[in-house]
Specification:
Blueprint lengths: L1 E3 L12 E9 L2 E7 L9 H8 L9 E7 H6 L3 H9 L5 E7 L9 H13 L10 E5 L2 E7 L5 E4 L8 H7 L3 E4 L7 E7 L3 E6 L3 H6 L7 E3 L7 E13 L2 E12 L3 E3 L3 H16 L9 E6 L2 E7 L5 E5 L2 E9 L1
Parallel strand pairs: 3-4, 5-6, 11-13, 14-16
Antiparallel strand pairs: 1-19, 2-3, 2-19, 4-5, 6-7, 7-8, 8-18, 9-10, 9-12, 10-11, 13-14, 14-15, 16-17, 17-18
This protein binds the ligand N[C@@H](CCC[C@H](N)C(=O)O)C(=O)O.
The site of the ligand N[C@@H](CCC[C@H](N)C(=O)O)C(=O)O has 18 residues, from helix 4 and helix 7.
Pathway: Amino-acid biosynthesis; L-lysine biosynthesis via DAP pathway; DL-2,6-diaminopimelate from LL-2,6-diaminopimelate: step 1/1
Organism: Promicromonospora iranensis
Subcellular location: Cytoplasm
């Protein structure tokens, strides 16, 4: 049923089959569906079926690529906002978690979306950055000379405000196997994150994280949870670079080998723990090690955060609806 990603496959959905491409960013994996007319009704049940690793294609999430203008005309507020923010954001990333829930943003997904748009002949990143709409605003993707995709993820904030930054925490997280909850910091990247600092790599690697961690107080929209261990600083080509290792339990999914917005949240939390909300004296660039590889997080002079990493398209095929 499947064909190599390099072969050309029909991309428009038909009533009884869907053309898909399977892709991943540092092993955070996605089922990608091109909907160039913006006509596909994708309900939670169908998302769960596509994402199922036994009876479907399998993935942490399902990504629909659709025209921003068509979604805006159909009343999708986020698409209307995206066009108001940047009328060149022709394509929209409609992101769903594997449990069928809708998520605002996916950092690894944006990179894989850009690679998919190129494969479909809908974008040419060699000609310049791609602006795409998401439920958390317009994101701009640039292709780096080494083949990585760099995404300007836009603004971020600490929901707990200055007092949380000063205290270093505003939540507590309990994970299966711990005798006591640990302090944690909430970071908003358009989607919600709670970052917990652990004492050592031994602790990080010995943890069982298949069960949903308990977060108190639980943010109103739920949360993704990142467990992090700072690994110090090193000299990079453009100055000092911080390094950390992370495991992540995603909202709507469970433990995943990577999370792009989670990597940004982790770097921003560790930087805040080191230097407060101004970040003065802490590195602006961070390498985040995840079970599925490595990504780079950078504080841009604009105050926005940038995420860079690989994007891979693995195979394409047709799946029955
Ligand atoms: N894997 C993504 C995040 C996907 C959405 C998340 N599970 C949520 O519900 O917020 C990433 O790479 O950022």
């Amino acid at each position: 049923m499947t064909q190599p990603a390099t072969s050309s496959v029909p991309s428009a959905p038909t009533p009884d089959t869907l053309a898909f491409t399977k892709g991943h960013g540092t092993q955070n994996d996605f089922v990608l569906i091109a909907d160039p007319e913006g006509v596909l009704e994708l309900g939670p049940q169908e998302v769960r079926r596509l994402a199922d690793r036994r009876s479907g294609v399998g993935g942490d999430g399902v990504i629909r690529l659709a025209p921003t203008a068509a979604l805006a005309r159909a009343g999708e507020q986020a698409a209307q906002d995206a066009l108001a923010e940047d009328p060149t954001a022709e394509w929209f990333m409609d992101y769903r978690n594997s449990d069928g829930s809708v998520a605002e943003m996916c950092g690894n997904g944006v990179r894989v979306f850009a690679a998919f748009a190129e494969q479909q002949g809908l974008a040419d990143l060699s000609a310049g950055p791609l602006s795409l709409g998401t439920r958390a605003g317009v994101k701009r993707v640039t292709k780096e000379p080494g083949g990585w995709y760099a995404v300007d993820m836009g603004p971020w904030f600490l929901p707990g405000g200055e007092s949380a930054a000063a205290d270093g925490y505003d939540a507590a997280v309990a994970v299966h196997g711990w005798t006591a909850p640990r302090p944690a910091l909430s970071v908003d990247l358009g989607n919600p994150h709670t970052v917990v600092a652990l004492a050592s790599l031994d602790e990080l690697e010995s943890l069982e994280l298949f069960h949903a961690p308990e977060v108190a107080p639980l943010p109103p929209r739920g949360t993704n949870v990142e467990l992090v261990v700072p690994l110090g600083e090193e000299e990079g080509p453009d100055g000092v670079v911080g390094r950390l290792r992370m495991r992540v339990h995603e909202r709507g999914v469970g433990e995943t080998p990577s999370c792009g917005t989670g990597a940004c949240a982790a770097a921003l939390a560790v930087r805040t723990w080191q230097a407060g909300s101004s970040g003065a004296g802490a590195p602006d660039t961070w390498i985040v090690e995840v079970p599925g590889g490595e990504v780079r997080v950078r504080l841009l002079p604009s105050g926005n955060v940038e995420l860079a990493g690989p994007a891979a398209l693995v195979y394409s095929g047709q799946v029955a609806r």
